[in-house]
Here is the input.
Amino acid sequence: MVNWARRIAILSGVAALAACAAPQPPEEAPPPPEPTNAVEAGLTPGPAIETLPLSSDDAEAARLSFIESCPKLLARNDNSGIAAFWTPACEAAPRWGGDPAGFFGAYFETARIGTGEAFLTGYFEPQIAGVREKREGYDVAVYGMPGDLIRDPNYAGEGRGPLGRVNADGEFVPYYERAEIVAGALNGPGPSQAPVIGWAKDPIDFFFLQIQGSGQLIGPDGEVLRIGYAGQNGREYVAIGRTLRERGVFAPGEATMQGIVDWLHANPDQADEVMNGNKSWVFFKELNGDGPLGALGVPVRAHASVAADPRFVPLGAPVFIDAAEDVADGLWIAQDTGGAIKGANRFDTFWGAGAQAKAIAGGMSSDASALVFLPKGTLARIAR
Here is the structure.
């Protein structure tokens, strides 16, 4: 009789020895580290500005936005590693009297960051129903910054410490999340009380205004209260589209902004839970200028301002975009940032306010190529 147990053991041992004798595949090399700024990503010369399809109207809008950006651009610490000299262009821009496209040709050269292959999205300034003073039908609080929102005073790590608050026991804890704020955590007396600068009519509309970061409250009498980003609670941002995809509401690629809004309005019994899954909350301040403020601290302009990652594009720099969606073609000025705008060639185009702006921004998802305009001589200095 065959001793099957012994036979299996022998065969197993032979197989193990064979496996040991076989040549082992080489270990895969770890992937190279991601570049942390434009110089690490690589800068290569692009085409001459005179060869680009740059219209006079497009160039003039960009020149005016560049002028607004210059005081901040000259004073700002640049994280891109480019270390360009912007003063000559900034001094010449307000005095330029010729063809606006000629200004950029006279003072700038083009550069590709990495491959220059870009991806675009869009944003806009929402206009929603809202008022300055609370009244019937307008009961969604638009909070200013609470006094107890601070960074961890004992943080010893790199960069800025996490946001939070000190509780009644003297412990630093995470700040209230969206569900707690909606439930009234900032309403009562005490250190967590936050000023209310306005009242929105629809919590879903206000939710999306918070995602955009600025907007207008339009009263029934036509009064406009423009509000802009003042701060955030430090809690994690969860994309509501991803939540609904995970629940099977939308297939991948189908979760448009308008589709999400329609679903939330059609499912009020689930809307609060879904929105509260995004723990982030944005606080606002009243804006008195003629446009929402970007991260550079100047008003962003329709089809002239773009959000970029400042590690790769100096805020204030012109960016020429050639997009698959032609409506986004042209010259933009990097004046803003965004939580999802990360990487060498990731841009978020600004389209202004109103129904058309909402439609374009909501549908903007485009591949593109991008050229950053740098003061002449910058690339030669970097190469040395």
The chain has a mean pLDDT of 89.
